[in-house]
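Following up on my earlier thread - several people asked me to post the actual chain instead of describing it. Fair enough. Here it is, all 404 residues.
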Amino acid sequence: MLLQISNSQARRLFMSRQGLCDNPTSKQSRGALLELIERMGFVQVDSINTVERAHHMILFSRNQTYRKENLNGLLEQDRALFEHWTHDASVIPTRFFPYWRHRFERNEAALLERWRKWRREGFEESFASVLEHIRAEGAVLSRDLLALEGGSKKPKGSQGWWDWHPSKTALEFLWRTGALSVDRREGFQKVYDLTERVLPPSVTEKRVMDVDFLDWSCRSALDRLGFATAGELAAFWDGISPAEAKAWCQRQLGKDLVEVEVAGANGSSSRRVFAYGDIEQQLEQLPSTPGRVRVLSPFDPLIRDRKRTERLFDYHYRIEVFVPEAKRQYGYYVFPLLEGEKLIGRIDMKRQEQALVVKGLWLEPKVKYSAGRQRAIEAELERIRRFVGQDGLLFEKGYLKDTS
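Reply from S.P.:
Thanks for posting it. Predicted structure:
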């Protein structure tokens, strides 16, 4: 008979692996921030800045003493982190770079073929000239190369990256395949340089075998998920296929892995998943979760896998940035609310002039808006107000929405 893991245990195990069971008030040094990111695996980067950028919101939700300058120092001075692609643009521990080098080699031919089909004009001839320019002149922004091309702009009505000018396309392709790395950002624009000038030789010169890459991809994902289906393991780094992950799991069953059943939220059916063989000891040592209310980024790893989120938390979430305004259920960029180990609602807020303005608050149908919960929400909003440097906290009339 399979081990049965309760829904509460499953939530806390996953949250603990993602740093959400830590003391959110403990003083965080630069080294402690690096340790947190290594435990999480990566932190997604996104440009939307209605309150603060996603990576800062993700890290602040785990520790209110988080400081942006510590992240910048790890990226641009210590080179302990680098920026690249998981399922999306992310900040990743530099010691993982050899596995990304292997990803580049696995994916380069397929990426090149796909871009050849999507591009409306040739772009490969610009690879050598872009590399030579950077080698001779140093790090560049895309706009620097655009100026050298004569200042041509993206065509009117452009729909995406396939309309980039040739050197911009070359920069992105060379970054995606490892020749270039992000040296830093100016504003939110990537500044590219040769990888060997950005990252230390200890990681750029190291190579891994395909079998080691597969084993690392699955084990490191399971470390950070606590339990998972084969598909969830594959999706975590988005570097291997579900079939590869499934085959790895089958080989490890009875060795390092066991199958367990995880109960769904609110009495929903359980799900058979994989876990390490010491899962019972892990469950015995589970920490409690901080009881405070916390605002999560829409790109927080706790909710990144929407199906997993619904299964564990009985919480449906979608980001409505690309939904036409008239069809939005909540708002352009709405933040989930976490209370203890439960997702209790969502909030629409933005920086407006010198205030943090709450436009809408929706609690889940079975969650009551008590005086105590109101104080807890306002306390979290005050923490965020101070973090983003706004002078006041304002609530629009009718901000509390009826979800009955």
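The radius of gyration is 23 Å. That should answer part of your original question.
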